[in-house]
Amino acid sequence: MYSQGLIGAKTDTGEDEAFLAAFQARIDAEEKIEPNDPMPDGYRKTLVRQIGQHAHSEIVGMLPEGNWITRAPSLRRKAALLAKVQDEGGHGLYLYSAAETLGVSREQMTEELLSGKAKYSSIFNYPTPTWADIGAIGWLVDGAAIMNQIPLCRCSYGPYARAMIRVCKEESFHQRQGYEIMMTLARGSDDQKEMAQDALDRWWWPSLMMFGPHDSESQHGDQSMKWKIKRFTNDELRQKFVDATVPQAEFIGLKIPDPELKWNEEKGGYDFGAIDWDEFWRVVKGGGPMNRQRIEARRKAWEEGAWVREAALAHAEKRKARRAAAKMAAE
Ligand code: FAQ
Q1: In Å, what is the CA distance from 188 to each residue of 61, 184, 267?
Q2: At what angle do helices 106-115 and 75-100 cross, to 10 degrees?
Q3: What 3-state DSSP class applies to 251?
């Protein structure tokens, strides 16, 4: 989707004050920054980090749901789930391509993921033992992803912002299919309702953690807001998600597992209980229930796919040589 020619591009931008001020003026004027534009190295690095981690999340995020493709309860459910998981793979590919425009290769990004240097979203380190987990992921995880990604459509970096437009349209379909699964279970037998409630109980708090640490602990937040990579802070987005999701749970008769959840008339939003940040950091640092399995699955796929990448490259080289020979013969 984007040019590969920028890989290894020189990033010596001569960052004096005048350069940084001129760059900030472009950001403040809401201009989009494009791959060949001069940019501060910190801006480039922040984007590579965020877009790379976002791409890894989409690809690792295929695993918990992929677990249910062969076991979906009907052909209709199977077709929708298969399409959803495939969409997530597509999102990963747009995002890797967007990151590549900043001079980093997909191989480098994958190596950083496998070595543990690059992160992926904490949420994908939780297991999916029941069918209701697939409903909960679509409803809550895709719901949280949309809340975070709609503002990214206005991110100052052009390729990332443009990739997000299609991604958000697809995430919206994913959220609805998840909510519809939950609604069906919540209106089903007692056992089905119990299964839906159990999935909500297990996914609610990890979904709130997806938005990242509190603003006071968010290392990159202020600078990313200034560069208009982020348009809202972690806590602002988390609050928007809670406010949008609580009425959805009430509508289908499920209970949010938070005794401190309460509507606050004055702020026009819900107050909610404390997040377990020890759990968050434990999961981010590799100690979640499924971290080991997720990385093992990615390593296996990367290693076993090596011959496909080699074959595709050899094929592309051959085609290029054939085209060049045909062009020479025609001249
Ligand atoms: N998990 O300073 P901040 C999806 C790290 S896509 C793990 O606040 P920032 C679709 C953070 O990287 C889900 N690590 O960082 C789908 C940083 O560490 P670093 C992914 C986390 O970047 C649905 C450190 O903590 N979405 O779900 C997490 O300003 C269903 C300090 O944090 C995106 O990636 C976390 N939850 O804000 C797929 C969206 N939170 O890098 C399949 C784009 C924070 O210095 C099925 N990303 N950290 O080593 C963003 O919007 C931002 O990067 C945030 C974090 C908001 C995630």
Answers
A1: 28, 6, 36
A2: 110
A3: helix
Answer yes or no: pTM beyond 0.85. Answer: yes
> What does the pLDDT average to over 165-186?
97
Helix (H, G, I), strand (E, B) or coil at 138: helix
Centroid of ligand 1 to alpha carbon of 210 (angstroms): 7
Pair 119, 21: CB distance under 8 Å: no
Strand ranges inside the chain, DSSP E: 262-264, 269-271
Report the separation in Å between the CA atom of 121 and the middle of ligand 1, taken as the mean of its atom positions.
Answer: 6
Residue 14 is predicted with a pLDDT of 66
For residue 64, the ligand 1 atom closest to its alpha carbon is 46
Burial 141-160 (b: 16+ CB within 10 A, else e): bbbbbbbbbbbbbebbbbbb
Q: What is the mean pLDDT of the chain?
A: 95
What SS3 state is found at 273?
A: coil
> Would you say 51 and 113 are in contact if contact means Cβ atoms under 8 Å apart?
no
The per-residue pLDDT for 13 is 56
List, in order, residues 6 or more apart from 105 with CB less than 8 Å away: 7
